[in-house]
Amino acid sequence: MTDPWKRFGEEARHAMDEAAPPFDALAGRQALQRRAASLRVVPGPRWRPLAGLVVAGLLLALVGWQLVSARGSPDRLVAHGEPMTVAFERGSHAEVLPDTELDVVARSPVGARVRVVRGQAEFDVHHESDTDWHVLAGPWDVAVTGTRLAVRWLPDQARVEVEVHEGSVVVRGPNGQATTVRTGERFESPRRAAVVVEPPLAPSAPLPVDPVPEPLSAPIDAGTAPRVAPKFAPRPRPWLELEQAGRYAEAREAVRGAGAKRVLAEASADELLAIARACRFAADDALSTDALTTVRRRFPGAPQAAMSAFLLGREAQGVEAARWFSQYLAEQPTGALAREASGRLLEALTQAGQPEQARTAAKAYLERYPEGPHAPYARSLLEP
Amino acid sequence: MREDIASLVAALKVGSPVAAAALYDRLGRDVHQRLYRALGPDPDLSDLVHDTFVEVLKSIRRLRDPGALDAWVGAIAVQVAHMRLQRRRRRWWLSFVPHDQVPEPEPSSPDATGNETLRQCWKALDTLEPRRRLALVLRHVEGQSLEEGAASLSVSLATFKRLLRAAEDDFRALTPRFPALGEWLEEGGR
Questions:
Q1: Is residue B184 less than 8 Å (CB to CB) from chain A?
Q2: What whole-number distance in Å separates Cα of residue A47 and Cα of residue A49?
Q3: Are A136 and A116 spatial neighbours (Cβ–Cβ below 8 Å)?
Q4: Which of 155-174 (A) contact B at CB < 8 A?
Q5: Does ipTM exceed 0.90?
Q6: Looking at the structure, do residues A76 and A103 belong to the same domain, yes or no?
Q7: Of A39, A200, A243, B169, which is most buried, counting CB atoms within 10 Å of its CB?
Q8: Mean of the pLDDT values across residues A138-161?
Q9: For residue range A339-375, what is the model confidence (pLDDT) as tens digits?
Q10: For residue B154, is pLDDT > 60?
Q11: Residues near A136 by Cβ (< 8 Å), separated by ≥ 6?
């Protein structure tokens, strides 16, 4: 006689696997690649003397493996709707702003070599005597020994812009010329000739840059020019490091401990999203929702506000979820999450008991994403 | 093959996004399948797959034997599923749903196969305490040995046996409410 549990297992496994939703490998792969780039890798201090050798060995293995797996290509990071943080050894990190592509050409225990393919990235490089850090942009090479700076590369104009918020860098051009750029200074290469704009700038003179989602910092006032740009001014944000370290419950506690209302009022849009993420994982749905609605209220029109609409929809049910997903689609009709929002809108409308709206949304979904992960579901809604 | 996995693990430990993508290519589908079997329809399934891999990347430094990579990832998927089930129960509790009513799973796409037995199976599983549910799924649906199941659930072998026995008793007791399950538990055969 057959073991009934064995029979149950076979039947259940068969039925579950048939009913399982499709696996969207591409989207998941890309999302994980972006997340992996933001995870910090720090060798333990007790083994620092050996860490170099160990990491070097691992890097050799990595290089060999990458040659096989990625045909030697660098790690290409593309920030679409929201910025990404890339962590490097010794606590150095880069923030890749939206619509920016960054190649991590090489990384080592003492530094890294990254290339801004297009767009803008901001760097915070930890300084030690052997630091070996280079930011490449077109034919330009920015040697960084420990500083905070922003690098912008406009490939169509072959123009690089470097703004140093703290420390100094050496910019080398295609002809070998080297220019030292120090705190508060700005370097531009309008196609051919390089120009160093020494502070102070006239207060009313706008910086000659094209509009970008997060432009380089504002013009520096002659009399009150700070050594460090306000964006990088130190302020205690323990929850941010805790969130980045995956210690979500502690991050949430830190926000609560510091006074959630004040934190939400002062945090940037990206910080608010990080707080929402930590609270979601720490099962504090109320604070997560507060953080997201704060983004909507304080940063209307920003990509983070649209992202918040999507996340609010994901946390909501029925009519409310449908409203948030519709809002996201209205604000970001071709955004990175548009397909997912469109699919979830179908589910929300169905759950809300609005079959006609669900059918209309299903038709729209199939027109745009006939092979999308919600396509079978959309078709099922249109069946008589 | 072992060298490939060792290189992959080494690359993961130094934080290579390319390695992360390779790991996803290798195990993404398995994790997706395991989470679906453990949780049933869930609107956040793809997010949970992502969460699983993020946890893997964060804890990869603790993996001593690269050959245990697949089992390691599978165990983390079970942990993520466990957290998800606990979260669902908290929500049901907060929404004041009487405990004797069958709690609905979170909003989801309808079962594409129209399989009524499967629908009842999900409902029955939803009434089980999370660890008992996972023990039942790991042992009978995933086909894991008792030792593998205990490792996946991060409990002792004795505890796993106790959870499994309790889950089987609970599940059997539900068949009067979900009669279609009898097709699988008693009559069998596709």
A1: yes
A2: 6
A3: yes
A4: none
A5: no
A6: yes
A7: A243
A8: 84
A9: 888 888 998 898 888 889 999 999 999 998 887 778 8
A10: yes
A11: A105, A113, A114, A115, A116, A142
The confidence score (pLDDT) of residue B131 equals: 93
CA-based nearest residue in chain B for residue A108: B14
Chain segment B85-120, per-residue pLDDT in tens: 988 876 554 444 443 343 444 434 444 445 788 999
Of B13, B115, B141, the CB nearest to A13: B141
Cα B61 to its chain centre, rounded Å, is 23
Using the 3D structure, point to which of B49, B80, B107 is the last residue of a domain.
B107
Closest Cα in chain A, distance from residue B185 (Å) = 5
What are the beta bridge partners of residue A77?
A: A102
Instruction: Please tell me the total count of domains within chain A.
Output: 2
Amino acid at A58: L
Residue A209, domain CATH:
2.60.120.1440
Dihedral of the alpha carbons of B100, B105, B110, B113, in degrees to the nearest 10: -80
Mean pLDDT (chain B, rounded): 82
Residues B118 and B44 in one domain: no
Cβ neighbors of B33 (< 8 A, separation 6 or more) are A17, A20, A23
Domain hosting A105: range is 26-232
Nearest residue in A to B186, CA atom: A4
Full domain range(s) for residue B150: 110-190
CB contact under 8 A, A17 and B33: yes
3-state secondary structure of A124: strand
Q: B60 and B96, same structural domain?
A: yes
Tens digits of per-residue pLDDT, A268-306?
Answer: 888 888 888 888 777 788 899 999 999 888 888 777 888
